[in-house]
Amino acid sequence: MVKKNTMGCGGYYGVVLVLLCFGAMKVRSDSSDHKYKSGEEVPLYANKVGPFHNPSETYRYFDLPFCSPGHVKDKTEALGEVLNGDRLVTAPYKLDFLSDRETEVVCKKSLSKEEVARFRDAVAKDYYFQMFYDDLPIWGFIGKVDKEGKADPSEYKYYLFKHLHFDIHHNKDRVIEVNARTDPNALVDITEDKEVDVDFMYSVKWKETEIPFEKRMEKYSQTSALPHHLEIHWFSIINSCVTVLLLTGFLATILMRVLKNDFVKYAHDEEAADDQEETGWKYIHGDVFRYPKQKSLFAAALGSGTQLFTLAIFIFVLALVGVFYPYNRGALFTALVVIYALTSGIAGYTAASFYCQLEGKNWVRNLLLTGSLFCGPLLLTFCFLNTVAIAYHATAALPFGTIVVIFLIWALVTSPLLVLGGIAGKNSKAEFQAPTRTTKYPREIPQLPWYRGALPQMAMAGFLPFSAIYIELYYIFASVWGHRIYTIYSILFIVFIILIIVTAFITVALTYFQLAAEDHEWWWRSFLCGGSTGLFIYGYCLYYYYARSDMSGFMQTSFFFGYMACICYAFFLMLGTVGFRAALFFVRHIYHSIKCE
C-alpha cells in the first residue's frame, strides 16, 4: 500500500517508466530464449500476406488458398501485436530442430478457376508472405510476373512459386538465423483461368554458426547502420546543428542588442519625462497579460500538448535502453497505449491548473475538453479506418475483444487519472504571476501589414524547424510506411532535441516582433506558430506519398493520410505547447526587467 502524498508526480511516473523498461526487457529476453533438442519441434507461424508496396493492407495467410494444416490454431497475441496487424497461425511446414528435409510435399492441391484468379491477382500486386520461426521473421514473395520482351500487359505471364527452401543456422541448441528462398525452377503457370494441379513442396537445410544467441537480432538492425546510411544521418544532424547555431546566434545577438537598447531607452524616458508617450512593446504592458479568448480550449490544448511531450520523452527513453529492437512485435504500440493512459494525469493537472490561473470557473467542462481534444479526432479516424479495414477483410481491422480492452484501459485508467490530475491542478492554488497589471479596457491593435498576420507568421515559424528534420523524416516514413528498419534512435533523439530548440527560439523571436508592433494578442499566436511544423510535416506526407512511395488503393491511401493526420495533429499540440511555454518565459522576463506604471 502506498501512503497518500508520499510520492510526487515525477516519482510516480519514474517508477512507471522503470517498470515498463524492466517488463519490456524481460519480454525481450524470455520471448524466444529457448533451447532445443535434436528432433524437437520448433514453432513456425504463418503471419500475413499483402501487397509489398501497401504496408497497411495485409490479410491472413490462409486467405489465399495455400495448403492448410488439418487444424489451424491461432497464436495468442499481445495487445501491441494485434494493433500491428499480426495474426499468427500454425504453418503447414515441419521444421524440427536439426532435421534436414529434401523436397517434402506439403500437400497436393487442385486449384479451381477462382483460386487461380485469386493467386494471379496476388502475384500481379507483388504479394509477399511473412512467417515467424522461433520469433525470427521470414519473408518471401508468393510468385513472379514475367514481363520480359512484352510491351502489352495482357501478354504478361504469371507464375506461382510452389517450392520453398529454408536455410536455418544454429549455435549448439539455439536457433540463430533463418532464411527462406523460392526455387526459380519450381513454377506453376497461373496466367489463364483454368484448373491447375499444384504440388506444394519445401526443403530444410541446417547449418552451424558461431554467432551467439544474444547477437542474433543484430543483422536486422545493421541495415540502418550501414556506412552510407550513417553518412546521410550525420549530414542531417550537421545540417540541423548548423541551423540551430545560426538561428540561436542570430536571435541571441539581435534580441539582446535590441532589448538592451529598449531597456536603456525606456529607463532614459522614465528619467526624462514621465508624461512622454510610450512606444513599442512597453506601450502594451497593460494588455500583454490579458487572458486569451477561448481560455478553456487554450488550457486544454496546453494540457494535451504537455501529455504528448511527456509521452514522446518516455518513448525515447525506452528506445534508447533497447526495448524497441527489430521485430519486437507490437512493443511500440503497447508502449504508446500504456504510457498515454498513464500520463493522462499530466494532461488533467496541467490543463486544470492553468485554466484556474486564468480565472476560469467551469473546470469540469475544461477537463472534458482536455480528455477529448486529442482522443476525439483519433477515435473518429479509427472508427472510419477500422470500418474500411473490415470491408477489405484486412488484418488491420481490430477484433471486438481488442476494442473492448482499449475501451477498458480508457475507462479504468485514462479517465480516472485525468480526473485525479484535474482535481490536483484545481487545488494547486497556483497564481499566474503576471509582472504587470492588466488594464480594464484593451488597447486597439494598430493596422499591421499582411505579413504580420497569423498565417504568414505560421509559415515562417514552421519552415525552420521542418528544415532541421526533413532529412530524417524520409527514413522514419520508410520505416513506418515501408519495410525499412530504423534503429538509430540516438540520432533521432538528437534531431528531436534540435526540433524543440528551434521551435522555442523561432516562436520567441516572432513573439518579440509581434509585441514590438504593439500587437498584444500573442497567446494563441505563439501556440499556432509553435505547432505549425505539424502542418509542414503533413505537407511532406503529400510529397512522400506521390513522389517517394508506390502506395495505391483506397485502403492504403485512407490509412496513410488518416493516421498521419492524427500524428501531425499530435505534433501540432506538442510543439504548440513548447512554443507557448518559451514565449511565456520570454515575455515574463522582459516585462520583469522594466518599470511600468
Automatic annotation (TrEMBL):
Q: Name one GO biological process term.
A: protein localization to membrane
List the InterPro entries. EMP70, MFS_trans_sf
List the subcellular locations.
Endosome membrane; Golgi apparatus membrane
| Keyword Protein transport (UniProt) | no
Q: Which UniProt keywords apply?
A: Endosome, Golgi apparatus, Membrane, Signal, Transmembrane, Transmembrane helix
GO cellular-component term (any)? endosome membrane
What's one Pfam family here?
EMP70
PANTHER family (alphabetical): TRANSMEMBRANE 9 SUPERFAMILY MEMBER, TRANSMEMBRANE 9 SUPERFAMILY PROTEIN
Family per record: Belongs to the nonaspanin (TM9SF) (TC 9.A.2) family.
Q: What is this protein called?
A: Transmembrane 9 superfamily member
Source organism per entry reads Anisodus tanguticus
